[in-house]
Amino acid sequence: MATIKLDNIKKSFGKTDVIHGVDIDIKDGEFIVIVGPSGCGKSTLLRMVAGLETVTSGEIQIDGARVNDDEPMDRDIAMVFQNYALYPHMSVEENMAYGLKIAKTPKDEITARVAEAARMLQLEPYLKRKPRELSGGQRQRVAMGRAIVRKPKVFLFDEPLSNLDAKLRVQMRLEIKELQSRLGITALYVTHDQVEAMTLADRMIVMNGGVADQIGAPLDVYSNPKTEFVAGFIGSPA
Ligand code: ADP
Ligand code: MG
């Protein structure tokens, strides 16, 4: 479990300013959703927390310690992407175990953690299958499993459900929320879908062109939008 602090985070690619100074204090176990239209900087912000992009200025802290210069592997973070990026030649079991093997986790420990994740995600019947033999929802569960087995301090999600059909998206959304609150792992979740944000978030960050227009509980943002942009974006149906 972990707190995360973003202190005046800015990002430029060359001469283009993409993130203009974002501040937020994230509590231990909180589910934060970053929502906004395509191109507003959601993924960039998340990738800076993950350590996959450098921070141009400002500070990122996890549990009070500056992590700006820490390698992704050292940040105790697990990330789930939209295209699950499973290894096609490996079974479900091997996909979930792979990161732990790389980290030289003892074999018994790997077996135990994979079994536990498979149970939580109802993947036990599919452990020997290859990703191509799974449905979209099952693949998404394997991607979740890969994140869970690492017992990270923080979960990062970048539009993890965008490739699923509407019905499955709603179901997986509930599963993610349930799992996150059961494990109590602090989560940062990116989506362009207002409904998804409203359903999942303890607090949401509404991004507009690299600026956090508003940060607050979904109902608060919905009933008291601070800017015209927020009113239009949150008020309009998905
Ligand atoms: P979102 O995830 O909200 O759709 P992104 O964070 O992917 O937005 O992108 C925000 C802006 O930064 C976009 O204008 C995008 O073109 C730009 N951008 C993202 N990554 C790079 C990069 N590696 N080099 C240059 N520009 C980038
Ligand atoms: Mg994105």
From TrEMBL:
From-to range in the entire protein, with total length: 1 to 238 of 337
Family per similarity comment: Belongs to the ABC transporter superfamily.
GO cellular component, one term: ATP-binding cassette (ABC) transporter complex, substrate-binding subunit-containing
Annotated GO MF terms: ABC-type transporter activity; ATP binding; ATP hydrolysis activity
Alphabetical UniProt keywords: ATP-binding, Cell inner membrane, Cell membrane, Membrane, Nucleotide-binding, Sugar transport, Translocase, Transport
Domain ABC transporter intervals: 4-234
Protein name: Carbohydrate ABC transporter ATP-binding protein, CUT1 family
Statement: the UniProt record of this protein carries the keyword Transport: yes
Domain of life where this protein originates: Bacteria
Gene Ontology terms: biological process: carbohydrate transport; glycerol-3-phosphate transmembrane transport; glycerophosphodiester transmembrane transport
Taxonomic lineage from the root: Bacteria, Pseudomonadati, Pseudomonadota, Alphaproteobacteria, Rhodobacterales
Keyword Ligase: no
